[in-house]
Amino acid sequence: QVQLVESGGGLVQSGGSLRLSCAASTSIRGFDIMAWYRQAPGKQRELVATITPSGITVYQDSVKGRFTISRDNAKNTVSLQMNSLNSEDTGVYYCNAHYWPLRPGHEYWGQGTQVTVSS
């Protein structure tokens, strides 16, 4: 069973930065996609950013130019550098690993880490 453990969340003022990390219990090289999702209070979970094994990245429009996703295959970690944070970025951030096409029972989630941006 793959385990993903997020860290790095916290309380930050508007305009500040945070760096989230996700540590996997197994090699991440085999996953087609490593991703960060977030869920704000009262809203559905949404995709924030993805990265492929070759380093191709995709971002949600609202975080382009502010967030950077990266991966360290040797350490089996994925990070999300978040700059110029605003209140709309508040939520629980989840690390995700999956294959493409999706394989039933083979999509993995972390427990989430809370990010709160105060204005």
Structure description:
With 119 residues, the protein is mainly β. It has strands spanning 4-7, 10-13, 18-24, 33-39, 46-51, 57-59, 67-72, 77-82, 91-98, 108-109, 113-118. Strands 2, 4, 5, 6, 9, 10 and 11 form a 7-stranded mixed sheet that branches. A 4-stranded antiparallel sheet has the order 1-3-8-7, with no helix packed on it. A hairpin with a 5-residue loop joins β5 (46-51) and β6. It is globular. The termini are far apart. The model has no long low-confidence stretch (mean pLDDT 96).
Give a quick summary of the entry.
With 119 residues, this protein is an all-beta fold. It has strands at 4-7, 10-13, 18-24, 33-39, 46-51, 57-59, 67-72, 77-82, 91-98, 108-109, 113-118. The strands form two sheets. Strands 2, 4, 5, 6, 9, 10 and 11 form a seven-stranded mixed sheet that branches. It has a four-stranded antiparallel sheet with strand order 1-3-8-7, with no helix packed on it.
* Percentage of β-strand residues: over 45%
Radius of gyration: 14 Å
Q: Report the biggest beta sheet as strand number plus sense, adding barrel if it closes.
A: 7 strands, mixed
Oligomer: single chain
Mean pLDDT: 96
Spell out the helices and strands N to C. EEEEEEEEEEE
β-strand number: 11
Low-pLDDT segments, ≥5 res: none
End-to-end distance: 40 Å
Gross morphology is globular
